[in-house]
């Protein structure tokens, strides 16, 4: 009888180990793909306006940022493409485009894009002017 219970214990140990391995593989495969949030979000108070900047892309295709502007005291009339200054490794990049809500209101959001390639490891600074204080976010390109 002792021999039978020993072999069942061995089978049980192997079954538990197999379940742990299968569970670990399932967890690994179900992890979400790295997304925009992985590059980082910066939230800055620029006078009466809260500016949230999320880096979406910082690579050879250029730089893209999701921008959100929130306030309850001033009208958001600025042109984000004209007000944004991107610096890559100390050099200013030109040619921003804005795909988002137009001027007006107290809440705006959209995507700001620059097509100039961003090298890996580059020091990135995004500065949005036109508020009582500039909104500044910094990142390091992956």
CATH class of the largest domain: Mainly Beta
Largest sheet: number of strands, sense, barrel closure = 5 strands, antiparallel
Low-confidence stretches: 31-37
| CATH architecture level-2 label of the largest domain | Sandwich
- Helix-strand makeup class: alpha+beta
Distance between termini? Answer: 62 Å
Helix content: 10-25%
Number of DSSP helices?
Answer: 2
Mean pLDDT: 84
**Main β-sheet, spatial strand arrangement:** 1-2-3-7-6
Beta-strand residue fraction: 35-45%
Structural overview:
By secondary structure, the protein is α+β, with helices and mostly antiparallel strands. The chain has two domains: 31 residues; 105 residues, Immunoglobulin-like (Sandwich). Helix content is 23%, strand content 42%. The chain is elongated, with a radius of gyration of 25 Å. It starts with a helix and ends with a strand. It comes from Lentzea sokolovensis.
């Amino acid at each position: 009888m002792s021999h039978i219970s020993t072999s069942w214990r061995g089978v049980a140990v192997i079954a538990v180990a197999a379940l742990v391995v299968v569970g670990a593989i399932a967890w690994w495969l179900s992890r979400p793909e790295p997304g925009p949030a992985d590059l980082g979000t910066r939230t800055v108070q620029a006078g009466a306006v809260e500016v949230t900047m999320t880096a979406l892309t910082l690579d050879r295709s250029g730089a893209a940022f999701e921008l959100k502007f929130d306030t309850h005291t001033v009208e958001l009339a600025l042109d984000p493409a004209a007000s944004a200054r991107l610096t890559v490794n100390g050099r200013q990049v030109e040619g921003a485009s804005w795909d988002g809500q137009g001027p007006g209101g107290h809440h705006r959001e959209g995507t700001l894009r620059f097509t100039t390639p961003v090298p890996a490891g580059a020091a990135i600074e995004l500065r949005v002017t036109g508020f009582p204080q500039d909104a500044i976010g910094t990142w390091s390109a992956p």
